[in-house]
Amino acid sequence: MLGAGTIATFAAATVLFGVGAGFGVLAAAVFFAYGKPLPTLGLIVFAIIFQNLSLSIFAPALLERAGDFSLAQGANYIVMALVFMMLMVASMQILKKDNMLFVGGVLIVAVYAAYGGARSDFVSAASYFRLFTVPLISVCLGFYLRDRVNGEDLRRFLMVFTIIVLSLLLVEVLAPAIYHSFAGTVDFQALKRPGSFSIDDVESFIVGSQRSLFNLTGAFRLDIFVPNIYGPSVHPISTAYIVATLGLSMFYFRRYVLTAGCFVALILISAKGPLVLFAAPVATVYLVRLGLFRRTAPYLFGLSYAAVVIAYGLYSSDVHVYGLIAGLQSLLTTPWGHGLGLGGNLSGEVLAVKNAQAIASGAARPVESAIGVMAYQLGIVCLPLCYWVWKRYTKAVEPFRPIYRAFLTSAFVVMIVNAAFQEEAFSPAAFGLGALVLLLLTGLDRGRKQALVPTP
């Protein structure tokens, strides 16, 4: 209830009094929820999932205030960052020796943001500061909350969110005109894509939102067209990541009807990365049950997935793969990095490095690859940051029995592979929610070799 009320009030306050008032609402809610693990978790998850839908409903009132709208889209990150800042100030738990790398990592990323902002623009630098700190913040929040949220409460909590999200998707599929009219999707897209979005009625928007199944390109393109499904995040890929994460949690809790619902939703949304994120851990479980590759199954799936994407990308001249290559090449030519805001989809620069142009230019600057852009902007500094996130997560899943450990590890490996080929994979809706929920699952005693000892 706190999360729903907060995000609705945030959107209303932004419309009535400006984005500053909206952020004030978020700060007050975080302060109120602090010390109450489940309300805090609800606030974070609701902000991640429903922030854009709340703004979309109020989008007609924001059409002349693009600046407020742009800033308001960072609400979910603001909530995550505020919660973590309060934890740092009020709890020595978060400042244990093993977590000090986080503090140093954020400070280093901030230095690169200042450096990149001076070379490009500070808006782009701030966008990438957010993107690159989401994994760090979500991992720390997951560790803090995992042994403070009751397992049964967590199961009910995630079930409620899964039912709500699937219900919204069902309404959108069965009655798209009614859904998009109520949600204000057309006005939201006009604010999101100024200058490149000219549709002004719902019917034209629905007709123009058709795309090839799974969005395959070149010789692999399928002549099957499906409508874009936008969901609660008003973005197909972000919604698909949300559904994949919720689907994995339902599979973990053995709620197979909801799991099947999430799988069907992912097929309808037709986003490849989130679908693999859902399917690979489930397949890993059945492979381990057969007694095969108990330790290596997650890594075999991850490597096979990466190899297929790279081969497909090179064959079809896909910009996602060339973006990763450009980022890795920059580690050799400029190991100290270029600074945040240079290169990437969120950069304010006019970059002609899309598809064929990217190949013609040798993909000198990375796009569409979170890891490629991170390597380009942060240089070798990204290596210890990635290692820290990986070490903390693998340490959390180590006490689990093989089948549970394989499931949790496989999901995290696929999240990292997705980040190699997609900038969206580091967003709050993707890596943020995914890492948080997976770490919450590591706090459950079921599947462990021994019970978790709560943090004092």
UniProtKB/TrEMBL annotation:
Transmembrane segments: 6-34, 41-63, 75-92, 99-115, 127-145, 157-179, 256-287, 299-315, 370-390, 402-420, 426-444
Top-level lineage group: Bacteria
Alphabetical UniProt keywords: Membrane, Transmembrane, Transmembrane helix
Name of the protein described by the UniProt record: Uncharacterized protein
Organism encoding this protein: Devosia soli
